[in-house]
Amino acid sequence: MMMEDFRVEQESLIRDEYNEEDNSTNTSSNINTNYEKALSAIGFGKFHVLLLFICGLANSSDAIEILCVSFVLPSAECDLKMSSTDKGYLSSITFLGMMIGGYVWGSLGDVLGRKYILISALFFNALFGALAGLSQTFQILLLCRFLSGIGVGGSVPIVWSYFSEFIPKDIRGRMICCLASSWFFGNLLVILFAYILLNNFQININLFSGYIIINNWKMFMIVSALPSAITCVLLLILPESPKFCLYNGKTSEARKILKNIFVYNNGNSNSEKKRILNEILDDFKFSVRPNLNDTDDDTEIFFGPNRPTGLIKSIVQNSKDIIKKTKCLFGKTHIFKTTLILCIMFAICFGYYGLWIWLPELYKRMALTGGSPCSTNFIPTNGTNNSNQSSCQIDKSVFESSFISALSNLPGNIFTIIFIDKMGRNLVTCKKIN
Asked: Cα–Cα distance between 41 and 62 in angstroms, integer?
């Protein structure tokens, strides 16, 4: 039903929207207007369902990789002789990597393209996520979690840009909220993986004459890296963002991608919609990047200079592009919005992850002590293992409590999908934060 609703809305808007003439003299604005018209002419269809599934899996895999450490904290305590301080380092090191990866990979996505930078970030995430499961010492585990965080930090921002650049404007809000809901499913998958691998049976695999030992929590980390690896393969069947192609002088490639999406969604039977789309694509006359100047912040963000040939020159030019785009974000045109969004994201992440990463550990302590998770009878001293070996086992109630906590996200996701386009982005965001 939802797909049919989207189709009806698109077809009712096409004729009125494209009879309007765009009198804008700004090159960037003209391109963006024509691009939005093309997306609306294509409409919502099978391609967007496939796109939502694959990007949703990418987003879920990021959630799995971030949140899996919440179950590692209580289960790896005895093996690695972790104190509460060590657990704090392990839970936070991923976010340090994300801060670095978000900037580097996110910037490369603007310069080199969305698709393959997203694939490389997910591969980086999967590689070091799996290697974390092979770690035999706390220090190696910490390093692998940091490097995995760099990959997660890269894929999180790119997947949203990549996804939204295929979605028609009038349903973009709802579709982005549907993508956001995939985080909820990633959360549920983490709990499912943990319940199966950390609760039901013992795993003891010896590799290389016992040099590498894989037990339950290590296998759990390896399995948690699989969704990222699977998403890397699935992304290969999707095209590059046509908007990125268009804004980087690859006009013919952008036209080809948009036509292929139209055919995939509508087939060749709808000749009228196809004619409208071809008329719009014929207006994509911009085939080279414009000249840049330091006074045009918006153009600076969207367009990049021509790519030089040669590895060293390319690296130097890409580095200059990244620095230039960063300066634009903090220039006078964008400084207020950039700072405001950074503050909002900091507050959300501090409140959500600051509590969520510790929930299974807190639930375990409550199950063992029968009351407060802060009981001094449970907390191990620094650098020593808790004498109570049962503290390294996760009680079944921990998974039940974690599952109930995860379900608390569902009403908010449903509310946002329904009301995002009716109430507006700002009001819905304020309601959800409150």
From this structure: 32
